[in-house]
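Sync notes, pocket subgroup
Present: LS, DG
LS reminded everyone that the earlier model was apo-only. Rerun requested with PBG included. Inputs:
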Amino acid sequence: MLIRPRRNRKSAAIRDMVQESHLNSSNLIYPIFIIDGENKKEEVVSMPGIYRFSIDNLLKEVEESMNLGLRSFDLFPSIDESLKDPLATESYREGNLYLKAIQQVKKEFPEACVITDVAMDPYSSDGHDGIVQDGEILNDETLVVLAKMALAHAQAGADIIAPSDMMDGRIGYLREHLDSHGFKHVSLMSYTAKYASAFYGPFRDALNSAPKAGDKKTYQMNPANVKEAIIEAELDAYEGADFLMVKPGLPYLDVIRALSERFDLPIAAYNVSGEYSMLKAASQNGWLNEELAVMETLIGFRRAGATAILTYHAKEVLEKGWLK
Ligand code: PBG
């Protein structure tokens, strides 16, 4: 045999020398759920180890995470049902929970990168990402609400705004709205290829944000498609996105690869709630070695072409020293 690939695997020194992909704490974005009140830390039943924090405890969680080497955080609010309405007006009301959280994190930790989620669902009495009329999701009318929300986030100090709604034209619309209000420096991380997925189940438990009727298939993508992701990416790149995101992560590694081959923008992968819960549940049952399974998952995103990875495992990975 002339060629023996095993020679490059024969020792740890050689294996490390020829390793193609690497994972660093700077690649990780930690999504955190927030809730109104004081001194609250409620575990999400379907996501063991993940909590909804009141702002005081959010600040502690961010501080601990920063001390471990994390710098980027994506915040998601759990909103009381009584504050929801069909137009998600709570989402941009001055002084709301989310805006206070952004302001306080940026005030205490100016060097942290705060990423905010733009979509109507946590605030919508219909539980949809857009305005619902007679069972239909209105696209252009929704853009107006999203723009108000994004501007409020920018004013509160958001570093990166991440629209997760999948309305057409939103990146260009938000870019224009932010620029014309003096927020040219605020970045847009587009949920470019967001699929209508079963893997968001635990997230919707965490925020109590599931649709009251119907599903999200008229705006989120069909899991069977990848060419459509290219169309979405072309639009986002053209409209001024700074990052392209693929979501969920694990079942869509080919989509990450396709976008990373065609576009020079950084690609983010969202290792979503259901993916987290699968590994957690199997590990808790002793069916998987959690450290090995988590690290294999995360390096898989890097190999596929993702620069940044949004993952609920972020803090635990650093706490337990799994990167070393
Ligand atoms: C809502 C949104 C969702 C997630 C992030 N933003 C859920 C949905 O679209 O229903 C899911 C994240 C996760 O499952 O971890 N716009």
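DG: Residues 117, 119, 121, 129, 164-165, 200, 203-204, 272-273 surround PBG (CB under 6 Å).
LS: The chain has a mean pLDDT of 97.
Action: DG to write up.
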